[in-house]
């Protein structure tokens, strides 16, 4: 694989002399304050510099669109011209951006497609001074060859402290009582609170912030449990926290604190159905993202008394509408997304983001990059179907994990007739890592940050090469992903040696799943997949097919892998649409089906 170092800005005019010379062009670097035009020749494009000497500057320009700590600004100024323009309207941002090489924002600025389009290709890096990058259009950034970096660690403690502040303030009615005294009242009986000591706190999302909240809550004498299907149990044990199922967490908690990322799987995770299963009088804290709660359902749960109180730092829409029932509810305490807002965190975040942005502008690889870099076209073309296969195998494997044991050790085996030097597996490993981590985390994984991300999560990925005889024309025969020391939601995916095992191949350019546990299957990895273990017998395909057909779910592929005729078999069914819960239930009720699982690709 060619070098992945980005072209540097130190000698910008050289890197621009001909675009076709760029090694692995992630950025098309351009000098500042130069007017230029390109010839219209299709292959070779030349820069024609027409700048006056007075306007020439080698320094890039960084637009800081939201308040950033001084230490970060100082770092930036050593390397770049820094334009601090806060509260820009979307139109003003689009106008300014064409003059900038980098943009730094927090959660209040929408960096949408229009911003990238307006930049005319000059914008090379967007720095998100914080964790969540839901305000940046990553697809548009990548399409425009713009790197996005964030600052994932410097505000962890601040967010955890704010969670604890909200927990205590809520339990003792601090905000309501404060407003009452300021309104001239003295209502000591009205604002009797509840104690924290001895109560059960459930932390949902035991990542960086969640584990810091748990640690602090233990110090307050609380009994802490957590639910995070992907967190290592030993990390939880080390701070005296028990990892339990989602159902148990919500049914037993006196307080629930939310710390998972907003993903399709966590969106509206707290809803009418889940509130109904909670202990009456539960109290909820949210410093994660507003979207993990169905806010209308929360209002209903507050009104019905299931939820006694809530303390919210984040909202689906920010700022929320002034007449929002939730915000105005007398048993709800709110803050305007202040989780990361401490002097210390903002200084830390500012330094973390300034270093990342300066590094990226210098052409260095950024450890906190959150979108995909461009790789040489010839490598991508050859590996493209295998890259897709790798990511999908990772996605499948992690969705098979059950129980609370956590994913710590993954082994990847590549069977290939290529000499080891002739097959660079970094991209494949990165994509497997992406498949394993993205469905369960707020982190975006790519070639740049895959190893870093795996390490941060305590995930050990080992690789093994199986050298095959034969023609080395295609780069790979098969990829196998094994997850050790875990339970599975689908017991048949556990191989004889005790690991969850999935294997896939590329057939006619399309990735296929070819093995689950010890069972051979053959299903194209498109749409979604249902895996069923059954007693092999006639008519099974028809039974399941007709349940799916009744609700117009299109079956793209079906295959049955069995140990021996009329013994146990695994049926793999590819579906274009997601079947309803009812249909999945009916599939589970087919008498010969012993277990089944629905997996999203
Ligand atoms: N209010 C604020 O100002 C701040 C908010 N945040 C938000 O807090 C959230 C967490 O941040 P970090 O701890 O840094 O992220 P992290 O990635 O370290 O932790 C997230 C954890 O959630 C877990 N998770 C994923 N899906 C889950 C599910 N379905 N159920 C339970 N757990 C699940 C993951 O396994 C991971 O351990 C992010 O959304 C972030 O944006 C972070 C900093 C400040
Ligand atoms: O880092 C995060 O994810 C946050 O939510 C903090 O957002 P902010 O930088 O304070 O706008």
TrEMBL record:
Pathway(s) where this gene product acts: Amino-acid biosynthesis; L-serine biosynthesis; L-serine from 3-phospho-D-glycerate: step 1/3
A Pfam short name: 2-Hacid_dh_C
GO cellular component: chloroplast stroma
Protein localization: Plastid, Chloroplast
GO molecular function, one term: phosphoglycerate dehydrogenase activity
Main localization, broad class: plastid
EC number: 1.1.1.95
Catalytic activity of the protein: (2R)-3-phosphoglycerate + NAD(+) = 3-phosphooxypyruvate + NADH + H(+)
Keyword presence, Amino-acid biosynthesis: yes
All copies of domain ACT, residue ranges: 529-601
Protein name in the entry: D-3-phosphoglycerate dehydrogenase
Phylogenetic classification of the source organism: Eukaryota, Viridiplantae, Streptophyta, Embryophyta, Tracheophyta
